[in-house]
Amino acid sequence: MDLNTIADVRDARRHEPWRPGDAWLGGGTYLFSEPQPHLRRLVDLSRMGWEPLTRHEDGSLEIAATCTVAQLSRFGRRFLDAPAAPLFEQCCRAFLASFKIWNMATVGGNLCNGLPAGPLISLAAALDGTCLLRAQDGSLREVKVVDFITGAGVKDLAEGELLRSVTLPGRALECRTAFRQASLYGLGRSGALVVGTLDPVDGSLAVTVSAATVRPFRFWFPLPPDADRLRTAIDTAVAPAEWFDDIHGLPEWRRHMGLRLAEEVRRELATSHGPEEGSR
User: Fold this and answer.
1) 6, 29, 151, 198: which has the fewest Cβ within 10 Å?
2) 185: Cβ–Cβ under 8 A, 6 or more apart, which residues?
């Protein structure tokens, strides 16, 4: 789609004062998908030269905001030697997108849109990711992905602030994972997406519920809980208004599927771990 209000596109390598009507341009798959009448100038990140994926000495993985879905998928399938590697492809496949979108859409764009069905939000939240944010004055701050998304399309992002990267801790990458996703349609947008991670070091279990809710919810247990404790934790934390409501699923259905998939994830990982908490 042509954006007929855009008067200028500038290279992000040239720092200029941020002004009303500016927007960061990553892959552009969202920006050019619908009218943006409030925008006047795009700040293009495509020439920043950021390494898409970097594995650090401590085992953590830094994912640049400009990393594309295709690059993330390929890295998870071919180069990431870690138990959590299959989760990368599972979340990428949860996209309602063609290969053309995969080669342009970015990790940063998916997070900064903040849509409940954003599967890279689900991936980063489930693996305890941390966002690195850079303000216009160059100052940096970090915020957990589960705290970065505060509602449907609502983010903890100041005017002109840039998401530079997301870092996944090495310990999270060593977790065994379980993935469940549901949609009203065979190739439809996610109505519920649940990821479980089992820590091999201390036996703790985390269950992350997203897509069904307006923002990701991550529940951590020192040992795998029983079914009742998991259900109670979810129902206590997620208010009725926080079950998402749109054409892709009513809140009642999303709650039902979120609870059902969470129990499936819990059972899969708890069975592999041994006796559940409360049954010893």
Assistant:
1) 151
2) none
At 48, list the tokens. Answer: 């920043």
> For residue 129, is pLDDT > 80?
yes
Give the C-alpha separation, 196 to 183, whole Å.
19
- Asked if 87 and 122 count as a contact pair (C-beta separation under 8 A), the reply is no
The 10 Å Cβ neighbour count of residue 35 is 11
49-96 pLDDT, tens digit per residue, is 999 999 999 999 999 999 999 999 999 999 999 999 999 999 999 987
CB 122 within 8 A of CB 193: yes
Question: What is the C-alpha to C-alpha distance for residues 197 and 199, in angstroms, rounded to an integer?
Answer: 6
> What interhelical angle do 85-93 and 119-126 show, nearest 10?
160
Residue 253 has pLDDT above 90, yes or no: yes
C-alpha span between 158 and 136 (Å, rounded): 10
Q: Radius of gyration (Cα) for the chain, nearest Å?
A: 19
